[in-house]
Amino acid sequence: MVIVTDDGRVLTGLLTESTPQTVALVDAKNTLILLAREEIEEMEDSPQSLMPEKLFESLSDNEIRDLFANLQSKTSEPLRNDLSSLSGLQETFDVASDAWVIANNGTQTTPRFQASGGNPTGWLQLDDTVGGDMAIVLPESWYGRLQNYNQGTLSFDARTVSSDGGLPHTVFGLVEIAGAGRTVRCDVTGPGAVVPGKSWTTYRVALNAKQFGVEEGDWNQIIKGVSRVTICVEAFSNANEKIGLDNISLRAP
């Protein structure tokens, strides 16, 4: 399926669910993309399959038969999200994805995918290795359309997996949005050093000028030209902690 959005983006993927309000695609990297119908300008079948080219050339006849038998044996299950009421993006990390990277963490830039123990299933583990303020970077497919969620919310679930000591850090939960030549910030945990415990905690921030401390006109310029969005998950100072991250989402107002 090929979808052209009202902001000019072209998205390609497998259509997994369609309702009068929303459309769900899974792209070639297994990333779930949720779109509100009102965002879609055009939608049509893709002339190109997501299946790798010349896949069958390296397979024997028996291997091809086994492949199709396996595919036909799998039942289709609905997405666990209620798409009829959801207008936005959500990453539940139920499958591994290389779209999410870590910043300010030395050479350790890849989160560790964990298949179970999340909220409720898969999740990402971020291992702090250096003294920087470790942060998760939102993929371009997310921040490139942030203006569609102006006045909406950004949320995520987090927990402390382990820590070898240290004191709670004030930077945990700091959301930074870069665009139009400047960077604005908002601490989703509020003032003081507030960090997650061992259980999953949900954090939310409203995406508006007041929350990020700028004038409305400046905010509108920033949100239209976003070049980077990060969520700081550095939870403890003078420590090498492991932080869990799950259910990152953008919701329309």
| Estimated share of beta-strand residues | 35-45%
The description of the largest β-sheet is: 6 strands, antiparallel
CATH class value of the largest domain: Mainly Beta
Query: In which range does the helix fraction lie?
Result: 10-25%
Morphology call:
globular
Kindly report how far apart the N and C termini lie: 27 Å
Give the strand tally.
19
Any idea of the CATH topology of the largest domain? Jelly Rolls
How many domains, in number, for the residues? 2
Strand and helix order = EEEEEEHEEEEEHEEEEEHHEEE
**Total number of helical segments?**
4
> Low-confidence segments, ≥5 residues, pLDDT <50?
74-86
CATH homologous superfamily title of the largest domain: Galactose-binding domain-like
Which structural traits does this protein have?
4 helices; globular; five-stranded antiparallel beta sheet; mainly beta; 2 domains; six-stranded antiparallel beta sheet; Jelly Rolls; 253 residues; 12% helix
What is this entry, summarized?
With 253 residues, the protein is mostly beta strands.
Blueprint (SSEs and pairs):
Blueprint: E1 2-5, E2 10-12, E3 14-18, E4 22-26, E5 32-36, E6 40-44, H1 61-73, E7 88-91, E8 101-103, E9 112-114, E10 123-127, E11 135-137, H2 140-143, E12 153-162, E13 167-168, E14 174-179, E15 182-187, E16 201-206, H3 209-212, H4 216-224, E17 226-232, E18 236-237, E19 242-251
Antiparallel strand pairs: 1-2, 1-6, 3-4, 4-5, 7-19, 8-11, 9-10, 10-19, 11-17, 12-16, 12-19, 13-18, 14-15, 14-17
